[in-house]
Amino acid sequence: MPVTTYEPTEELTGERKEPQTVFRNVSCRIDAEEAEQVGVEHLLRDINDPSTSVLTFQIKQKLTGLSGLLNRLVEMSTYLQRVIAGQIPVNNQIIANMQSIFNLLPNLNIDEIVRSMLVNSNDVYLAIYVSSLVRSVIALHNLLTNKLKYRNLEDSLEKENGGTNATAGGGKTDATPVAVADNNKNKDKA
């Protein structure tokens, strides 16, 4: 199970050596027995993982659905073969359910139906693709906006201090915006 843990530590930053809370990553591992793992996997099934896209999640769901369909078709085939071989008696309710299932399937021998299904699926996948692109562009925009915001904050702090902040390497810096940015970043992860 992916888990990220942090612990707050105080560090002395800046020329005045003021203590500031900084979050440090702590390595963590969660172990469980097999029964607990099954329960946790069942609970986590519906939780969306932000590191994966919606398209990836939908493809995984489709694969799971298709594998379940294949298993049911194999069960029906095995049942019918055993009935034909005379190993088990015919159950009319099961045969009626199978007939209902096969009656609901579309007739793929008609070109019009095949074309309409392809057009519909292409439209759905285009919408998913465009929404993924828009989400990526919005995330990049937010990243750039955040970077500009902290650059402006750093410039304003530098003007307030009269440009006297200098590091050992000779460059200008102020530890406060970086610490604020790090804290915000760590809060988002936590």
Description:
The chain has helices at residues 34-44, 54-84, 92-104, 111-160, 175-189, and strands at 5-13, 18-26. The protein has 190 residues and is mostly helical. The protein has a domain at 53-105. The protein has a two-stranded antiparallel sheet. A hairpin with a 4-residue loop joins strand 1 and strand 2 (18-26). Helix 4 (111-160) packs antiparallel against helix 5 (175-189). The chain is elongated, with a radius of gyration of 30 Å.
What is the fold's blueprint, element by element?
Blueprint: E1 5-13, E2 18-26, H1 34-44, H2 54-84, H3 92-104, H4 111-160, H5 175-189
Antiparallel strand pairs: 1-2
Helix pairs in contact: 4-5
Fill in the keyword field for this structure:
single chain; two-stranded antiparallel sheet; 5 helices; 63% helix; 190 residues; mainly alpha
Strand content: 5-15%
Strands of the widest sheet, in order across it, are 1-2
What is the first-to-last residue Cα distance? 15 Å
How many helices does DSSP assign?
A: 5
Radius of gyration: 30 Å
| Shape annotation | elongated
**SSE sequence, one letter per element:** EEHHHHH
Largest sheet report: 2 strands, antiparallel
| Fraction of residues in H or I helices | 55-70%
Total strands: the figure is 2
Low-confidence stretches: 166-187
Structural class: mainly alpha
What's the mean pLDDT score? 79
